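Tutorial, part two.
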Amino acid sequence: MGWLARIRIDCLEGALAGLGWIARRRGGAEGLPPHLAVGIEGENAAYFYLRRKSYIVVARRWSSGGVPGDIDLIAWQGPMLCFVEVKTRTARDLTPAEVAVDSHKRNTLRRLARQYVRQLPQEAAPPVRFDVLSVYLVPGQKKEFVHFEGSFGLSERREY
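Running the prediction step on this input gives:
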């Protein structure tokens, strides 16, 4: 990624942060529970993180009409279609953020991903990957990202 593209992404991220600050000052986010506000802030940070890594983000908070749940981010990395689950924390606990993606959440993401791939215009399904992106927004510290590329597959393998 060139320096001009990086500057553009930095400016967009700064503008979004400024608009969020204005909304908070005017009381625009009062009805939102704190955990949802943190989640949205983490998803915004993850979006710009992926953009800096040259991903092409094509959907945010995508949901299907018939399948419950949503996919935080859908992006292309070259020919690979990536479904990204973002987990945001405001503190470093004993349990890492990515642990929250349990088998139920993985199965929900798989169902949604299959639905998304079915609606693509191409005949053959692209290769897909599921990523988990942990975002740590600890007050007074720099944002920290832990990106698990290919953290699970399209089918669950059971080990006995």
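The mean pLDDT is 88. In part three we will examine how such features are distributed along the chain.
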